[in-house]
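Fold this sequence, please.
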Amino acid sequence: MYEGMYGSARGLGFFAILMTVIITPIAGIISIFIEAAILYIIYKILGGTGSYEGTVRFISYATAVLVLSWIPIVGWIAGIYGIYLYIVGGMHVHDVSMARSVIAVLLPTLLIILLMVIFMAWLFAFSGLSLFGFFSTGVIFL
């Protein structure tokens, strides 16, 4: 009679866990190949000579340290070490300088941040809101 806080959806718990266990590794593998394609193109633009297979290999090695990311302080250290492994791995696989490897590794992140800033500026420009939450025109266009 009483279905609890989650209603009748609580019976889907096992199914949700099962699907997560199946989908998460598949999505992780697919994301490694997509990330490798993006980095391979960036390294080629920067003059790299490595192969796509080598890019997939060093990304796989570098992301292995993320197994430790769930530990509070060790996770931060492992994340920084993972970025270092990306830089050094790309430097060796694609035979580029460390500066070019840093650019190749950090460029996708900087582009995403830039796109987020542009989107937020667009959102503020067309929403009628000022930066501090006050209504600039009294009308909100969402």
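Helices lie at 13-45, 52-63, 72-94, 98-127. The chain has four helices and no strands.
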